[in-house]
Amino acid sequence: MGIPRCDHLLIAAAALLDKAGPAAVTLRDVGRAVGVSHNAPYRHFASKQDLLASLIARELRDVCKEAEALERLPSPQTLILTFARWALAYPERFRLMIFHWPDGAHADLCEARCRWQAMFIRAIEIQQAAALLPTGDPERLSCLIRSTALGAIQHYLATGGKDTPPAEVIGDLFGYLARGAQRAPPTNAALVAELSGAVD
Amino acid sequence: MGIPRCDHLLIAAAALLDKAGPAAVTLRDVGRAVGVSHNAPYRHFASKQDLLASLIARELRDVCKEAEALERLPSPQTLILTFARWALAYPERFRLMIFHWPDGAHADLCEARCRWQAMFIRAIEIQQAAALLPTGDPERLSCLIRSTALGAIQHYLATGGKDTPPAEVIGDLFGYLARGAQRAPPTNAALVAELSGAVD
DNA sequence: ACCTGAACACCGTTCAAGT
DNA sequence: ACCTGAACACCGTTCAAGT
User: Fold this and answer.
1) Phi then psi dihedrals of residue B132, to 5 deg
2) pLDDT tens readout for residues B150-189
3) Which of B134, B140, B152 sits opposite A147 (nearest CB)?
4) Which of A120, B112, B153, B167 could form a disulfide bond with B192, CB atoms 3.0-4.6 angstroms apart?
C-alpha cells in the first residue's frame, strides 16, 4: 500500500467511470471505495471538477510515458494509433477528456496536453525531413491529423462501433497525405490491424 | 404565442445552456423560465436526458433544413462549413451533441443524424462524379471529412479558440483530397473567411 | 389531458469539531 | 495535517391530488 491516498482516489474514480459512466462517479462513492468519509477527497482536490481534471491529466501523462519509454521516438502514425487504442480501451475516460473544456484551464491537464502535442510535432518534423510527409507548418499538419483522429474516435464510440474504425479513417488520411509527400510514409499495418480488432 | 409548450421548453433549455453551460440547465429552471411548475416538463419529456436529446435533435434538424431550403444541393465543403458555423455560434449545444453517446439511441436524434449524413454523402457523390473529389466509397470519404471537421471544431473550442480555426483545418484536408482528384474542388473561400471570423 | 405541491433519495460543498 | 459527522441548498424523479 505504498500508493498515495491521492492516486488511490483517482484510481477509484476511474473504476467507477469505466463501469457506469460519468453520472456514476460521485465524491461519496469515490470516498466509500477507498474507505474514507464522503468529503475526505477535499483534502486532496479542490472540487469534483478538479478531481476529474486530475484524472484525465494522469491518463494523458501515462499515454505520453508509454511512448517516451521506447528507445526511439515513435512515428506520428504510431503515436496517434497508441492514443486511439487508449481511447477505445477506456471510452468513458476519452469522453470525459473531450467534454472537459476550458472551465478554468487545469494546470496539470494543460501541461499533459502540451507534452503530448510537442512529442507529436517532433515526430512529424522527422518524417517531413525524410520526405515521408508533405512539407509545411508541422503544427498545422499536426492539427489536421489530431483533429481527424479525435473526430474519428468520437464518432466511432458515439455510434457504438457501427461506423468505420478510427484506425482506418486515420489510415485513409495518411494515404492522402502520402500523395503530397515525395515518398510514401509507413502504414503501420500491424498496429492498424490490432486496433481494428480492439472494439467489436 | 402559437408556439407549442413543448418547443417553448426546448428553447428555454437552449437559452440556459448557452448562457451558463450544461450544469446550469435544470428541469426546475427550465420550468420556471416558461412559467410552469418544476415537473411540468415530464408531461412532454420522459426525463431530463430525453429533453436534452430532443434539444440537439431539433438543432440538427434545423441545420438540415437550412441546407435543404436552398434551390440546389450545396457542395460538401459548404455543408460541412455550415455545420461548423453552427457549432461555433452555439458551442455549448455542440458540446452537448458530442457528449450525448448511445445511452439509449434517442429516435429523433438518430433520424436527424441520418438525415444530415445522407445529404452529405449525396453531395460527395456529385463531386466524385464530376472528378472534383477522389473516387472510392463515398461513405468512407464522408467519414474522413466528418471526422476531421468534428475533431477540428472540438479542439478549437476546447482550447478557447487559440488553435487553428476549423475552417482552415477543413480547407487543408480538401487541399490534400484535391491531389487525389482529377480536378481541384472549389474552396468556398468566402464561407471559409466568414467562418474564420466567427470566433475571435 | 395537463398541471401542481409535497415528498424521497441523492448530490456537491461547507463547517465546526475531533485526533 | 488529516479526517469526520452534521448540516445546507440543490437536484431528478415519483406520486397522490386537483381541474
Assistant:
1) -95, -15
2) 999 999 999 999 899 999 999 999 999 998 786 766 666 6
3) B152
4) B167
